[in-house]
Amino acid sequence: MADNPHYTKYHPKWYRHKVPIFWWVHKWTSIKFITREITSVFVAFYAVVLLFHVSAVAQGPEAYDSFLSCMKSPVSIGAHLLALLFASFHSYTWFSLAPKGLVVKMRGERVSGPVIAGAHYVAWLIVSIVVAWIVLSA
Amino acid sequence: MAETIALEVFRYRPEQEEEPTFQTYEVPLQKDWVVLDALNYIKDTLDGSLTFRWSCRMGVCGSCGMMVNGDPVLTCAAFLETYRPGPIRVEPLANFPVVRDLVIEMGGFISKLKRAKPWIIREEEKPLSEGEYVQSPEQLADFKQYSMCINCMLCYSACPVFGLEQDFSGPAVLALAQRYNLDSRDQGATERMNELSQDEGIWPCTLVGECSEVCPKQVDPAGAIQRYKLSSTQDWWKSLLMPWGAKSKVGDQG
User: How many angstroms away from the CA of B129 is the closest CA of chain A?
Assistant: First the structure.
């Protein structure tokens, strides 16, 4: 329609509804989606903490001790617990969505969603155990 | 007296008003009536000026999509009984400009559809004497789900990303592109990828998933887009790590 000058000449005034900033508060699925997006901030926060950790290790024992004492403060522990909570939710949503993008076929049949999500959880568990073993045995 | 139900219908008459209004109509609550029947009843007996699109009345043409009580649905499949005792709020599909009453402007969607090249592309057609392009049931199953799209645009109304970024190609267009990418007879995946891996192609999608929820044909556009993203990413890594290798067919990885 817009490409045809005969129509655009007598163009009616189209009504355009503006999307309000809080468009997402009316539906549970939208709230869940926005929460999932916000969890990324906490995942990013933890990534930054990890960078500081590596930097402290590189700077020597003194810097590392001061980093550790900083991490033991109640504010830091609270922030870490919050980050853990959001990162867990982030992982949960990620694994729930994995079957949407991943198409795996076995003997010509598509592997079902719960199996793909389940495989992700198993992999998560194995990686967590290995990391825990490395950290605790050090 | 027969039972009735109220329909609050979105009215927008650009020659009369700047802002839309709602007009309430009482229609008979017939057991076998859908919202589209009620709209036709209004048009035939109460108010001939009410404007809306419809055609097949049986969920095939994709013309009668509207927002009913805030959800994008095909009005030919939305029974009045479900919304008892009412009122039922009927609005044009969300996220599109409104031309008049319940009629939306779909030019943008049609031009995006063309960009996705939703047809079989062959590098070279084989001569007729060699016969048809044979396809196994397994190969058909790879793309059949995506071929069920009726272009009703309910997915665009459900997609908040499209609401905020009108340039986004959108769920139906990308699902249709995937329908051809995954077709064993097609060789146009790279051509489509060049077009749809642009900023306004697959990448604005943040996987809200609502498009798949509202699809009346269970096409699962959200899944199609994620598969497309995965293919595009694999393609990018391949071109980075093996620049000498030819580009893979997009559909290869799923």
Answer: 32
